[in-house]
Amino acid sequence: MPNTSSLDTNIFIRLFSGDMPSQYKKVVELLSNEDQTFIIEDAAILEMAHVLEACYGKERLDIARDINFLCSIENVSVDRKLFERIAKLYYEHPKLSINDCYLALMAEEKSAEPLLTFDKKLAAQLPSAKELK
User: Fold this and answer.
1) Which residues form the domain of 126?
2) Cβ of 5: how many Cβ atoms within 10 Å?
3) Could you list the pLDDT tens digit for every one of the 133 residues in the chain?
4) Least packed by Cβ within 10 Å: which of 68, 84, 105, 127?
5) Same domain as 111, residue 63
6) Do 73 and 98 have their domain in common?
7) How many domains is the chain built from?
8) What is the pTM of this model?
């Protein structure tokens, strides 16, 4: 029976930035361990996307691919369907933050639409959001 651990955001930053080769190698080895199951919380992926874009200057397409890569790892427990949709939305709507995309899709998923917001850009770009005036 596999052991289960949770993963912190900095694990993914090392994996996708490659800025610390020794830590990158440890992450690759860790994720390759089939006797281990890893849980990735939603907040960790959201923070990862923000840090990679804001601090490392990664393009949205690359970040969307990073998210999809995490969803493809067999011994990782993550809301795959949700994050595959978020990655697509995030790439297609460059004026929206990853958090905007997450909140809009969660509102849709929970049948709690519209997502009420003061954010005009969000309301204009996503049908699941409505500007509160």
Assistant:
1) 93-133
2) 11
3) 569 999 999 999 999 999 999 999 999 999 999 899 999 999 999 999 999 999 999 999 999 999 999 999 999 999 999 999 999 999 999 999 999 999 999 999 999 999 999 999 999 999 999 999 9
4) 127
5) no
6) no
7) 2
8) 0.93
